[in-house]
Amino acid sequence: MSKARASAEDLVRRGVLVHVPPALRSYTSGRDEVLLEASDLASLLDLLDSAFPGLRDRIAEETGGPRRYVNVFVNDEQVRGPLSEARLAPGDVVHILPSVAGG
Fold first, then answer.
1. Mean pLDDT throughout 62-80?
2. Does residue 53 contact residue 81 with C-beta atoms inside 8 Å?
3. Are 49 and 55 in contact (CB under 8 A)?
4. Other CB atoms within 10 A of residue 48 CB
5. DSSP-H helix ranges across the chain
């Protein structure tokens, strides 16, 4: 008896889906989404950096918060404080959005 493959929807329910913006896809070999298991944003960034070296430094400051010109959202809520305080649960979706400036 063969085991059925998990659907994409089932996989997303078990992990945290990270949407990678075009500006950072050179770090992820062009991948626009990454699925990981983490309990907070700081741990998630550690996992991202292990898989895609240099990515964390483009998103977070050494102090633990998001970089000044990067917005991080968990589901629909913007993370403004330390990333380690932003809790994650299976099924959450993280969006990383570089700010756009112009005049």
1. 91
2. no
3. yes
4. 24
5. 8-14, 41-51, 55-59
For residue 21, the model assigns a pLDDT of 94
Listed in sequence order, the residues at least 6 apart from 9 whose beta carbon sits closer than 8 Å to its beta carbon are none
Q: How far apart are CA 25 and CA 20, in angstroms?
A: 6
Report the alpha-carbon distance of residue 3 to residue 40 in Å, rounded.
Answer: 31
Strands of 93-98's sheet in order across: 33-36, 16-19, 93-98, 70-74, 77-79
Could you tell me the domains of the chain?
8-98 (3.10.20.30)
Task: Give the tens place of pLDDT for each residue, 5-60.
Answer: 455 565 556 799 999 999 999 999 999 999 999 999 999 999 999 999 999 999 99
For residue 38, the tally of other CB atoms under 10 A from its CB is 20
In this prediction, residue 45 carries a pLDDT of 94
Residues 6+ apart with CB under 8 A from 96: 18, 19, 20, 21, 24, 59, 70, 71, 72
